[in-house]
């Protein structure tokens, strides 16, 4: 499990999005997190605790 997620981070989730991508950008790192799919731009809201568990890897610390 990932400890800290911050806005601007690129992350890889365990499960791929419907479009086949599993890399996401963290837009909001609040308790209710917001992430954007790097392939199709889809925005997803997810509880931070859930997101941390779903996160497999941190790709980069800040914006692309
Ligand atoms: Zn997508």
Produce the secondary structure layout.
Layout lengths: L9 E4 L9 E6 L3 E6 L5 E5 H7 E6 L4
Antiparallel strand pairs: 1-2, 1-5, 2-3, 3-4
Keywords:
single chain; 64 residues; mainly beta; SH3 type barrels; five-stranded antiparallel beta sheet; 5 strands; binds zinc ion
- Stated plainly, the CATH topology is called SH3 type barrels
Number of domains: 1
Q: Which sequence of strands runs across the widest sheet?
A: 4-3-2-1-5
Q: Name the ligand types.
A: zinc ion
State mean pLDDT (0 to 100 scale). 94
CATH architecture: Roll
Structural class: mainly beta
Oligomeric state:
single chain
- The fraction of residues in strands falls at 35-45%
Q: How many DSSP H or I helices?
A: 1
Helix content: 10-25%
Write the H/E string, N to C: EEEEHE
Structure in a nutshell:
The protein is mostly beta strands and 64 residues long. It has one helix spanning 48-54; strands at residues 10-13, 23-28, 32-37, 43-47, 55-60. A five-stranded antiparallel beta sheet has the order 4-3-2-1-5, covered by helices on one side.
Written overview of the protein:
With 64 residues, the chain is mainly beta. It has one domain (10-60): SH3 type barrels (Roll), CATH 2.30.30. The protein is built from 1 helix and 5 strands. It has one helix at 48-54; strands at residues 10-13, 23-28, 32-37, 43-47, 55-60. A 5-stranded antiparallel sheet has the order 4-3-2-1-5, covered by helices on one side. Zinc ion (ZN) binds at residues 17, 19, 21, 37, 39-40, 42.
């Amino acid at each position: 499990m990932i400890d800290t997620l911050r806005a601007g981070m690129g992350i890889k989730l365990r499960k791929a999005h419907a479009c086949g991508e599993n890399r996401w950008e963290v837009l909001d790192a609040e308790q209710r997190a917001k992430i954007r799919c790097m392939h199709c731009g889809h925005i997803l809201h997810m509880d931070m605790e859930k997101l941390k568990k779903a996160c497999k890897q941190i790709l980069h610390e800040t914006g692309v």
